[in-house]
Structure formats: C-alpha cells, structure tokens
Amino acid sequence: MTVKESFVAEGAKRQIGNDAFLNENLMERAMKGTGNVSKSKLNIGIVGAGLAGMVAAMDLVDAGHEVEIFELRPFVGGKVSSWKDGEGNHIEQGLHVFFGCYYNLFGIMRRTGSFDDLRLKEHTHTFINDGGGKGELDFRFPIGAPVSGLQAFFKTEQLEVVDKFHNALRLGTSPIVRALFDFDGGMDMVRELDDISFSEWFTGLGGSRGSLDRMWDPIAYALGFLDCDNISARAMLTIFMLFAIRTEASVLRMLEGSPQTYLHDPIIKYLEDRDVKINLRTGCREIIYDKDENDKPNYVKGIRIGSGNSDEIREFDTVIAALDVPGIKKVLPEDFRQYPMFDNIYKLETVPIATVMLRFDGWVTEMQDLERMMDITGDQSDGRGAGIDNLLYSADAEFSCFADLALTSPGEYYKEGEGSLIQAVFDHRGFGRESEQIVKDAIAQVNALFPSSKQLNCTWSNVVKLGQSLYKESPGQDTHRPSQATPIPNFFLAGSYTYQDYLDSMEGATRSGLMVADEVVARAEDIAKLNREKAGSAGAVTP
C-alpha cells in the first residue's frame, strides 16, 4: 500500500502526489480549515508545540474537537522557535526563509493575520565569495518561469564559462526539462532518484565538479545542511522542479522580526481564543496503550506527562505525536516497533547545526561605501541600514547560508546606534567546536567574505547548537518516513519528517499538521465508536 492509499481523508490525499506541487488551492484549504465539523467530539492530546502540532490543533478545534497541547520546552515553535535572553536579545536556532511555494504555510499565516508581516526580497539568490566577489542567480526578468530561471543560470557570474556549459548540459537532460511539457512524467523521474546523491546524478551525464563546488553545494547546505555528495538527488531536484515551473517558487520572504512574535504568537492567539490549552515545560514521559491477543499495541489510552518532579496520566480519545526525529524516537514505546512503520523511524538520521548570531558596530555587507559602512547614527530602522537585504550563500564559508537580520528582519533585530546582526548557520563542519571557537571562526570567515568588515568590531555574539536538527535527506532515507496515520487507529504522527512531498522545512511541517488534522476528522466517528467500545469493556488507565 502506498502512503497516499493509506489515507482516508481527501484533503490529506491532495497533499501527496504530483498535483500537490502546483496546487495553489492548498493555500485556500489552509486558510479555511478542513471545512468539516465532526459529529462526535474527541478529546485530543497533541505532544509537541512546533508548527505541525499547532497547525493540527487549529484545524481540529475548528472541527469541533477539544484539544490540549503539551510541550517539553518553555516556548513553542519546535525547530522554528525563538526566545529572548536576559538582555532582551532575540535568539533563534536557525535561519528561516519563506519560499514563494510555501502555499500551505502562507494560508495559515493569512488565517492568523500574520502574512503581511513577511518582508518580500529582491528576486535574486546571491553568493558571496572570498575577497568580496559576488555571484547571483538573478531571476528578475520580464518573462516568468521557465525563461526567468534559464536566463538566471546562463548569466550567473558564480560559475566559469566551462562550468556553465557543463551545468547547462546536465540540466538540459534532466527531469526538469521533461516537466516543462510533461510535469507528471518529470516528477515521476525525480521520485525514482532518491537512492543516489545529487553529485552522482549531476556528474553522471556531463555535470562538472566546479558547478557543484561553487554553486550547488551552498544551495544543498542551505536546504538540508548536506553537500551534494550526501544529499539525495530527489531532494535537490524537487526544489529545482518547483523553481522551473513556478516563477514565485524561488521568491524569498523573511519575517519582520522573530518567529515567536511574527509567526507563533498569532497562532497561539488563534488557539487560545478557541480554548486550546498549551502546556509548556510539560513533556510526554510515556504513552499508555493496550495490546491485542498477539501482544501488539492496538489502542492508545493516554499519556503520562510531567513537569519537574510532578507526574500524571492523562486520558485522551486520540493522541498525536507532533515531534521531530529525536523526539519521536524517545517517546515511542519499544512495543510499537513491532510495526514496520514505527521501526523505520529509527532508520532516519539527523544533521547537526550551530546557529551563530554576531552583532557589529557597522554594516558588514556594505562593500562599496566605507563611510556608509561605518555610519550607525540616527534611526536606520525598517531596513534603511546599509548593505544587502537578502538571504546570502557562500561556497567559501562553513556556514550554509546567512543574512544580516538588522536589514532583512529589522522589526526586532535592528537596534538604534548599532549595525549588522549577522546570523549564520554552521553545518557539521563547524558544529563540533566549542562555542567560543565557533564565534571566532565565524568572524574570521565573515571578514574573508567582506574584507572591509575587518574595520568593524563584534559587540555581541550567541551560539545555539542543535545536535539533531533536520532529518538527513541522504540517499535512501525517503522510504523510511512514516505517514501521519498509523496502524494504531487512535494514534497519529505529525512533523516535517513525516511523509509529505516537500522537504523537512516549515512548509513540510505545516503540510503534515494539515494532513494529520484531515485524517483525524475523517476518522472521528470510527475513533469515537472505538472509544465507546473500550470504555464499555476496559477498566481505568493503569501506569
């Protein structure tokens, strides 16, 4: 049985398959909810207050169910979380960019009223090289996709002429070209490429190592914190397919300020206005369940939750584990691994990242006007500071992508009398070092990319390490991703690692939350009937 065939809900099915990539109607679905109110009201416990869990809660409470969320940490957001330190600095654990094809997430943001808090960037992807050299994939063109993309690759200064030739040769024989006139055929080809790396695919029929090193590796690191030798060809080509077909897919936006303020707080208000309780610092310590005559789990009774030294068992009609890969591995009972779907989760690997934030007393990315670079006087809010207001890539640094948040997200990251706030994400190449060394290396590499910035001083820094971040989109991993519906009829999964056709990302998390809500609503009457049967034949929940 395919993942799509395992779903009952039509809404969940629409998120799977080739049509889901180009279906702008998904935004309207996210804006309006499931469109159904269940006859039977379920008491639903959601473990995890990341985007997937909160989005699922939005749909489920609107469908008439009673929903309660439990989050181990003192804040919501999962991998997109942010918080303030003791000095009022906003801290993030990743650099969050909103691609134009985030139809589901944009629908949620319109629903909560936060979409207008996104700042649109120039339609160009900029590479910064050692010594201040700059290359671009400039998609600004009077004619949209695919012409805008083709001319961007043809004109880019990031590649030498010979590498451009080999790049064009390989892309010209790729599934992307077929998709221009046969999208289903092209996407089917992409899906079959999960077992090889992007490097294997790219160099197999004419692509050059130079193209990989100077352009594709930085993009791969930005997408999944892996280089082209280690990332699946499917993962990379999925993104390029969208870029080739839809002009808006490669358009970038960034939040006005922190994710907490401009993404999560509106969702929290939406939920609290509908009496959804979010329990912070309250993790799931155990899943309580029944077994069938073959000693296999067949029904979830509830969860044991804890905060500090306190501990209690809560009964629920339905439980959704909306966690990341390390979270779900920790909470799943060993018995659940009797089902291949759950056992496969333990085959998923993750990648480490270290997010560095560096405040300077000038404008780091301003390389043309040294006087302007040093000028931090007066009010330079709302992106009026000097430098590049966009996401940046580099083939010459150990951070996959970076940006000056004082320019890109000035609402909370610009401080009057101060300059750039560089946020850079180190991958495995720098993760293992001490935080102090990571800061020193980050400053040195920023100085190498922007030589004039050597005249500036770093006035504040912060490092957040995540030893297990995104699931590792390496060859062969896609087949291990579980669906949102599980073999246990009242137990569901959500999270960007669960199966959906996008990458492990904010959009992927949103999709999974919408899909699990669709499935719970579609199965609500069956679950209610099962709960009545269990209530009539079983005793109280036992530890």
Explain this structure.
With 543 residues, the protein is of the alpha/beta class. Helix content is 38%, strand content 19%. Helix 4 (25-32) runs parallel beside helix 6. The longest helix is centred in the C-terminal third of the chain and has 17 residues, at 506-522. It is globular. The two termini are 35 Å apart. The model has no long low-confidence stretch (mean pLDDT 93).
Outline of the structure:
It is built from 23 helices and 20 strands. The chain is of the alpha/beta class and 543 residues long.
Assign the structural class, choosing from mainly alpha, mainly beta, alpha/beta, alpha+beta, or little secondary structure.
alpha/beta
- The share of residues in helices is 25-40%
**Major β-sheet, in short?**
7 strands, mixed
Specify the overall morphology.
globular
Distance between the termini: 35 Å
Radius of gyration: 24 Å
Q: What is the mean pLDDT?
A: 93
- Low-pLDDT runs of 5+ residues are none
SS elements, strand count: 20
The neighbouring-strand order within the major sheet is: 8-7-16-17-18-15-19
The DSSP helix count reads 23
Content of β-strand: 15-25%
